[in-house]
Write a structure and sequence with these properties.
The chain is of the alpha+beta class. It is built from 9 helices and 8 strands. The chain is globular.
Length: about 270
């Protein structure tokens, strides 16, 4: 499916007694699996490829040093406080190194769609793409109840299950001072985006996803940063204080003030 053409990192020794061609093929398999299943842990890769944990970590170390794979850290319910799980994803350089040209194909197709049917056709396509996500996430978010913070955490869990490496953190203070209750908020961070390169050229993908989050949570959310625009994470501001809810008519609350709060570059 993918054309693998990359030079192994010379600083990483291969397994004792393992021929170079076998080592290279295994490394390519690890790279392909990270592309297909990332964000993915070393243990999961070992199970997928039937490769020993030591071999998987050796290849991941080499790929990381080569700049084609990077580590994303995400807190999960199973890792405990202060011990974020390590997940591996491809970097932009990694996408190029494996000769995957789907981005060029998609970019060309979207430009052609816009030329033939107008810019609104791309927006319609983006809305159709995210409609399935909204339909799947709605019962998961609704199950969290009416509390916006709880709904935000449920959304983050659903996004993480889909590979977005998401987290939701309540913002209680800024510069050492407690934020007033009516300005309370949650910051939803996503460390991975499968359409990052396309969204850089077609921001409607980010805009449509933001609108979906707003409908799912029932509040006026706002994007503070995106991977597509050069950020290290996508950060969405979610107001949780008084006046944050949408009205029955769907109009935005005028009290949904945004107080940007610096976040870690990795969720």
């Amino acid at each position: 499916m993918y054309s693998m053409t990359m030079t192994p990192a010379p600083a990483q020794p291969r397994g004792r007694g393992v021929p170079r061609d076998v080592e290279d093929r295994t490394r390519d398999r690890v790279l392909s699996a990270v592309l297909e299943h990332g964000p993915v842990s070393a243990a999961e890769l070992g199970e997928l490829l039937n490769v020993t944990p030591a071999a998987v970590r050796r290849h991941l170390d080499a790929l990381t040093k080569s700049g084609v794979v990077e580590v994303k850290r995400v807190a999960t319910s199973g890792t405990g406080a202060g011990r974020p799980a390590r997940r591996y994803v491809l970097t932009s350089r990694g996408q190029s190194s494996i000769g995957d040209d789907y981005l060029d194909i998609a970019r060309t197709a979207l430009h052609r769609l816009s030329d033939v049917a107008g810019p609104g056709a791309v927006e319609d396509f983006a809305e159709e793409r995210f409609a399935a996500m909204e339909q799947r996430y709605q019962p998961l978010v609704d199950a969290a109840g009416d509390d916006v913070a709880a709904r935000s955490r449920a959304l983050a869990e659903a996004l993480t299950d889909d590979g977005f490496v998401a987290s939701a953190a309540e913002v209680a203070s800024r510069a050492g001072k407690r934020i007033p209750d009516h300005l309370a908020s949650v910051q939803l961070c996503q460390g991975h985006c499968p359409v990052q390169e396309l969204a850089a050229e077609f921001p409607v993908f980010c805009d449509t996803e933001t609108a979906v989050f707003s409908r799912l949570l029932g509040v006026d959310v706002r994007r503070l940063s995106t991977l597509a625009s050069g950020g290290h994470v996508c950060t969405t501001h979610i107001p949780t204080g008084r006046g944050a809810r949408l009205t029955d008519s769907g109009s935005r609350s005028p009290h949904a003030d945004v107080i940007p709060v610096p976040t870690n570059e990795r969720p």
